[in-house]
Amino acid sequence: xxxxxxxxxxxxxxxxxxxxxxxxxxxxxxxxxxxxxxxxxxxxxxxxxxxxxx
Length: 54
What we know:
Elements: E1 4-5, H1 13-30, E2 37-42, E3 48-53
Antiparallel strand pairs: 1-3, 2-3
């Protein structure tokens, strides 16, 4: 499997963490398969993003 990256990068780890939690929680609400792993990563320029394994 390959990582799926969200296209937006955030200034703070908190903002990326909010998106990561939403990914984990929304799957059971909307009825699609939840990702196996959701991870926050830091880019080379110091911004934060979210990636997951489907």
